[in-house]
Amino acid sequence: MYGLLLFSHLAGLMVWVGAILAVIVMLFMLKGQLGTPEANSLSKRIISVFSRFAHPSAFIVLVSGVIMIIQLNMGSSKPFWLDMMEKAGGTIILLFLIVVGIMGGKLKKRLQAAASGTVSISSYVTSLAISLIAILAVVLIVSLKL
Fold first, then answer.
1. How far apart are CA 88 and CA 120, in angstroms?
2. pLDDT digits (tens, 9 = 90+) for 18-48
3. Which residue windows are transmembrane per the record (predicted)?
């Protein structure tokens, strides 16, 4: 059972990080063309597809991680890296789901309303970049077992 949970955890993490990286690159490449109906529509579609992959995979990472930590049954004598993965990782996932979900929904509405107007996507891309850096920081700490 633990092996299946670990696989789900790592697969979800790969999909989540890959989706964030892909949407950052795609939206950054479209940034100069925003304002045209085609680019705004494409940006809206990119955010929708991103949400379909990133949010479920982040949820899978959260659930599988919680179950694995419960199965370890270490109580309060956890090493720093495991404590960091549990607390910081869980917080990052929950913040990601809430903040990026809300920002993505608002951005999609603004892109649809301003079909031929310029819409700023920089705050959305910045929040994704911060999420990516935070995720990679937790992965580094866990990988090095600090």
1. 30
2. 999 999 999 999 988 888 888 889 999 999 9
3. 6-28, 49-70, 90-107, 119-144
CB 12 within 8 A of CB 61: yes
Let me know: does 55 contact 101? Beta carbons within 8 Å.
yes
In sequence order, what are the beta bridge partners of 36?
34
Average pLDDT for 56-81: 90
The domain segmentation of the chain, as residue ranges, is 2-144
Spatial neighbors of 78 by CB under 8 A, at least 6 apart, are 86
How far apart (Å, rounded) are the C-alpha atoms in residues 96 and 18? 15
